[in-house]
Structure formats: structure tokens, C-alpha cells
Amino acid sequence: MKKLRTIARAFILLTTVAYSLGAAAKGHRTQVFTTVKTANAETVHGQIDWPQGELIDWNGPVIVFISGGIPSDRNGWAVLARGTVWNRRSPFKDLSDALVAKGMAVIRFDHPAVRAPKFNCRDALENGTFSESRIRTHCLNVEVLSRVGVSTYVSSVEAAINHVVGLMPNATRQVVLFGFSEGLQHATTILNRRSITPSALVSIGSPAQCLRDVSHWQAIDRVIETLPEFDSNIDGVVTNAEIEDGYKRGIGGIASDSSAWLSPHGEWRKDDIEAFRSDLKKQFSELTGRFRDVGQKDSLTYVRHKSGVRIPDVTESFWRMQFQSEVSSLKSMVQLGVPGLFIWGDKDRQVPVTLQASLAVAAKQKGATVEVVRFAARFHMLSAESDTDWFEPAFASDIAEVVRKFLLRSRRSAQAS
After folding, report:
1. pLDDT for residue 5
2. Which of 64, 186, 284, 348 has the greatest count of CB atoms below 10 A from its CB?
3. Transmembrane segments in this chain: where (predicted)?
4. β-strand 370-375 against 340-345: which pairing, if any?
């Protein structure tokens, strides 16, 4: 039983209209911006990309990229990406270029704790010693990062949106909040605050349900649902040999190595699996209890890189959000009458896609302006390769076209009603 609990804990921690949308626009203009620090928001550095003309005259859609809260830059890259397939990506830049090419403006920005571009973080890590001190000097302001809890992050994003929209007075009614994974949670919080009235919410890899329910699925049901995939001879018994072989073939990649799946008895039988489920539930309950007190100190957490270097991550409030938040983006869309687009990859193992899609479709059948697009051969962030990677640069144009058509349909629907 002790071994079962060790395995269970390993999984729990892992969960841890002048411009037409009908044609491609010519040109690509950029303007950088910096917001002012306030009592509730940190300074944010970012940029606006748009197709043509003067910014003050822009009256087309304005897409705002909102990430989940890890300290990533305006291009969608983070120090945490080092040593992974994600390290070679700049997904926000790629998607921004694709959206601008199809006639949309894009607002993207660095996490408040990310040091300005002049510090050359990526180059510094690639060409120098990879160390915590180098990360602090060139990449992340740890003092700021330790202050950025969920509330401060959302307020900082909100301030950045208001700042830029103030520079584009003709586009205030065409702001679209685009959440990536947990970023939709923050977009929904901004929607619920009603200080900004978005014309639509769009997301990639984000749940329609609240994060609390999805975390429960990740920590318990996803694990149990995955075990039978190792049963290569389909005899109802999953042996450790089958696990070792299956892991090499890509099964069970939600764990960092095959040992997390191995049975202490050499094989998983029905009774063992049920005991495993019970222990997962117990461990999940204990972990959520740890994050239940919203008044506790919001300490900064770290991720240990495979080289041994500690990488500053997020404050504990982001974990509390993950395990405690009852905010459902779908419910907010329906209640406030805001159109929504959910984009998922069917191979996503971070979100229970089939369930999320069924909830969205049911809402649409009841009259909500909600659409679902699923890509059969894509993972969590629409990568063709892995749940821990992002979409390839060439695929950004496909995503942009999906967004363009959705906005066109939702605008026509709004005009008709």
C-alpha cells in the first residue's frame, strides 16, 4: 500500500468594418508598449501587431493573447521550455503573424516578471552557463515573480488590454480574449469583472468546465483510464513488462518515466486498480486541502530542471486556482451572452476533450453562440508530436483561419439579432 501511495502521489504532482475578415491583409505593423505599475497591477511590456494603416484608425478585430500564468514572453517561450521540444517554438509570434496576415490585430505581452527583450534571455541561456543566477539576471525578475499571484496577474493583463485599446478607440467593440490552456480561466475572470466587454472568447486546449473538476479528472480518472492501454494482449491484466514496452511506444506519457506506472506486485489486476483509484482519491483530497486556505502566504514555487537547476515557476495561488476554482468559462459565456470558440486536439491528455465538447455542444443546442473545432491528429496545444509541445509554425495559418471564420460568423449572427 505504501508503494501504491508513492505512485499515486507521483501522478497527483504531475497535474500538477473598414478591414475585411474575408481577405488577407497586406503589410504588418508593430508598436511596443509599457504599462504603469499600480497598487493592483505590475508593469507589463508588450506589443501590438496589426496589418496596415495607423493604429488610432484601426477598426478591425483585436485578438488578446492570454497565457496560463507561467512566466513566458510575448512570443510564447518560457525558461521552462529549455531542454524540451517546446524550446524551439515561438508559438505566440507564429500565430500573431498568421492572424495579422488574415486581417486581425494582436496584442501580446511578456509576463510581468519576464525581463525586457534587451536582456536577451534566450541567447544568454543558449550561449552561456545554464544556472539559476543567469536565469535571474537575464530572464526573470524573481522579486516581481514572487508578487504575481493570480489576482495580480489578471489585473496586470486587464491593465495592458485597457492601455492598448485606449490607443485603438475604433476597435473597442471588437476585442477578443484568446486564452491558451488555463489562460481561458483568466479571460473568463476578466469577462466576469465586466470592466472590458469582449466580443468573443477563443481558446486552445482550455476546459469548458471549471479547473477544479478537470484537476480531479487529471489526477484520478485519467490515470485509471490510461492503465488498460498498456494491456497489449487484452487479457485484463497489465503486467510490468507490458508497461515497460508500452511506455517505450508512447503510452502513459503523462508520467515522466515508466516507473510511475509499475505495480508493486508485478501486475495490475482489477482489485489492484480499484485500490489504486481509492488511494489516488485520498491523495488528491490531501493535496487540495493543502491549497484550500486562500489566506495563506502566496509563496513562489520552483521547478527542478533535469540538469539540477531550479527554475522559478509560479506562486502557490496558481495551484490553488487549479484545484479550487469553480469558475466555468462555458457557463460565463452562456450567462453573459458572449460567443465562444473552443479549439481542441483529440489526442489531448490534459483535458477530457470528449466531455468538454459534449458540454459545449449541449449549450449550443440550447441557443448559446458556442462553437467547437477538434483536430483529430493533434495534442494539447495542437502539436502534431506531443502533449508538451506547441503547434508547428506552418499550422498557425490553419488556426488563424478557424478563428477568422468564427469571428465572421459570430459578427453576422450579432448583426442579424
Report:
1. 46
2. 64
3. none
4. parallel
